[in-house]
Specification:
Length: 162
Amino acid sequence: MIDTLIPEHHDLIDIMGPRISFATPVSAEEGYCVILSVVPAGAVIPVHSHPDRETLYVIDGRLEGLLGSTWQTFGPRSVIDVPGGVPHAFRNGSGQEVTALLVTTMRMGRFFKEIGRPAARSATLIPPGPDQIAALASAARRYGYHLGTDEDNAAVGIYLDV
């Protein structure tokens, strides 16, 4: 599915598991940023929050989303709207990759660009290493984004092996 969602000439960036490609150029301007996203099977986006609103439109696959304290499953043509400041998490336990369109702030686009690393087009999940996690934590502090603790994640059934 990645080849039909993200054209070959687009750069692909790994964001701690999920792979993204910017549909709109990332700039210093404010406004919205449109991102094409592929979430590999087994990928987990731990509990976090940020002041930026983000809206995901699931194109294909099934993605579990935690908004506040309730897990929900979102399938094709589902919209996941996360207001700024709301703790949330995502996981793909379906066994198949999930493709989605993400609309968020240009600020979050710049954050993703900063923490991302070049990605292969394969569907293989490559867990982040200690250096990537340290870079994420540092960037999150600078942007004012909150990363959940191990206890926050365990409380909602997410256990990280890092």
